[in-house]
Amino acid sequence: LGAKNNFSSQIIVAKKAAAGGIDLAGLGPVIAVVAIVVVIVLLALLVFLYLWLKSTLRITPKVSRIPADGKSVVPVKVMFVNGLGMVKKQRSDVEVEVSSTAGKVQNVIIPTGRDFVEAQLTSSEEFGPVAITAKAKGKAARAEVRFVYDKAVIDLAASPDPIPADGKSSANIVVKVKDGSGKFIAPLEEMTVDLKSTLGTIKSPVK
């Protein structure tokens, strides 16, 4: 009878152990959450890797306004950056073609192991916006500066002058721009000028 009771106790203990085992069905939501977290982490790593390896050409003028005197020079930084905005060192020499819509600028080479190089843009005696373009390794970058004058005035000249006050005669008005020294200067973009007259009529604005 004692042996029979011991056997019954062992069966009860075994059942309790089985009842206290891992409930896989209950762990389902936890496993799903863990899987989602793992996927998010992997995606984040892939995005980071893509941004780290991405290469974009960038040019940055040191200043945005340059005297339009034909001799002022502005350094233009030429570099490659990754998707995180970090400058990338070059594993070999990279030739960069640099051009501008006005002024003078020369091509540059980013040497091996360097992360940037500076191109030199020399201004012209024209005034207005100037686009700078760089091309290298199938990529392109663009920046803009302005050639400016500290002092400039508008000069008007009528031809013929004088004209008869008969209500039908007309004259051509020539509009020019002069710098502070009185030299005529040309704009780099179309200008619109408003004209007014104390007598007669005049077409305005003009370009």
How are the elements arranged and paired?
Layout: H1 2-19, H2 28-53, E1 56-61, E2 65-67, E3 73-81, E4 94-100, E5 108-110, E6 116-122, E7 128-136, E8 139-148, E9 152-159, E10 172-179, E11 184-185
Parallel strand pairs: 2-8
Antiparallel strand pairs: 1-3, 3-6, 4-5, 4-7, 7-8, 9-10, 10-11
Notable traits:
five-stranded mixed beta sheet, 207 residues, alpha+beta, single chain, 11 strands, three-stranded antiparallel beta sheet, 2 helices
Verbal overview:
The chain is α+β, with helices and mostly antiparallel strands and 207 residues long. It has helices spanning 2-19, 28-53; strands spanning 56-61, 65-67, 73-81, 94-100, 108-110, 116-122, 128-136, 139-148, 152-159, 172-179, 184-185. The chain contains two helices and eleven strands. Strands 2-8-7-4-5 form a five-stranded mixed beta sheet, with no helix packed on it. A three-stranded antiparallel beta sheet has the order 1-3-6, with no helix packed on it. The chain is elongated and about 105 Å long.
